[in-house]
Automatic annotation (TrEMBL):
Database matches in PANTHER family: FERREDOXIN (PTHR36923:SF3)
One Pfam family matching this protein: Fer4_13
Domain 4Fe-4S ferredoxin-type span(s) in chain numbering: 1-29
Function of the protein: Ferredoxins are iron-sulfur proteins that transfer electrons in a wide variety of metabolic reactions.
Membrane spanning stretches: none
An example Gene Ontology molecular-function term: electron transfer activity
Organism from which the protein derives: Streptomyces mashuensis
Protein name, per record: Ferredoxin
Amino acid sequence: MRVSIDSSVCIGSGMCALTAPSVFDQDDEGYGTVRPGRADGAGDPLVKEAVRACPVQAVRLDED
């Protein structure tokens, strides 16, 4: 599993960071980011919920 955020789509709602804070964070401008070393989702069960919670579908999950 690989998680990413499409920065061209993200509006900075923060739902990813609120839903799965061990995987997602927000940058200084409020846009979602994947924490360093966490692009694999590290088995966090909340990653899929964060994908669903994003209001603009900027959070992507590619399952291997």
